[in-house]
Sequence to fold (236 residues):
Amino acid sequence: MSAESANRCDVVVIGAGVAGLCAAVELAAVGHAVVLLDKGRGVGGRMATRRLGDAVLDHGAQFFTVRGRAFGGLVAGAHEAGRVATWCEGFARAEAVAAPAMAAGDGHARWRGVQGMTDLPKFLAGGLIDRGATVRTNARVTAVGVAAGHVRLEVDGGPPLAARGCVVTAPVPQALDLLAAGGLLASAGVRIDEAAHRRLATIAYDPCFALMLVLDRPGRVPEPGRSWRAAYPRPA
Fold:
């Protein structure tokens, strides 16, 4: 077997956040040979957990919700396995910064990992491995192109991968950089749809800063541990 054929698969999924993991689960469930790549040290993406001593800090997503049947089935499996649990059904809120917080609930469950927010991604990744899929972390893709009828992916520090298809779940600016590096945004040859490219190029992301603190006394945030306050008056 040649080195090129040894590095072929049906589908490569770039990004091991929840979107990439769910895509890989669906593909593996119908029999595709899947390789999931992520540049980070572990799976999860924005569902990130860090431990400082005995403290557990979720510094990406603080919770997740279920809005669809397919994702609900995955969450139900994780719940049955003891990996996720419901946190609350709403948050305390105040209409002004100095106003007292009032309990609020909308009846829609917010979910959390039992040990941390990485619990759900790790559960999904474990299911993928059980189905024969390959999950690789510390694998930074540098280019996505097309060659000899296959998608060709350049991976930093390793041999290229060839696949029949590719799912890119990285943030849009990063995804466009990968396509550009692989020649898919060039003026000639195989490339993505121009109208789609123009629309994607307009997408930008606001920065977000997370402050992780370990308190030496109980906090004053009301139950369930999060409070929503309006910085400005609501419009009439």
Notes: The two ends are 69 Å apart (CA to CA). The first helix runs from residue 3 to 6.
